[in-house]
Here is the input.
Amino acid sequence: MSDLYLDSRKTALIAIDLQNAIMQISTAPYPATEVAQKNRRIADKLRDRGGTVVWVRVDLNHFLELPVDQPLSFAGKQLPDELSEIAPSAGFQEGDLLITKRHWGAFAGTALEEQLRNRKIDTVLLTGISTNAGVESTLRQGTGLGFGFVVVEDACSSQDADEHRFAVQKIFPRLARVRTAEEVLQALA
Here is the structure.
């Protein structure tokens, strides 16, 4: 892999769905607690270097339900609002951006693109849960808008390790650079 250089002033971390409801599910290959910890380290370092930190959550009570063969388990249920809040362990801080989405990807139907462009962001560090759903959908949407991405492999996880590996090994290298949290932290040093 090539060396990674990040200009923190033009870089944003976009952390997908590190919210209370998602932190309660079983994830693989990495536990959700480990994913949150790595996101927190990256967010803290990027923030210290003048970068942008964006937390994306899904509003579970207003998820855009489309006709699908496998509806979500919470479809049609009224859930406590706190399940849609960013988990405290992830490291949300005052001054960070909070984007609320209604479907898988973070760009569709949100102000995310406008917020990034206003800050002159050209590179996105992408993390979160689930690798093959919210993370992959956001990556696909964002590359179509011209943003460069670095997917932080060990700061993402899925509900199934094979789905995570497939996305990271077969899909992401065609759309982005794939690096570890340590490689990203070193590039921000």
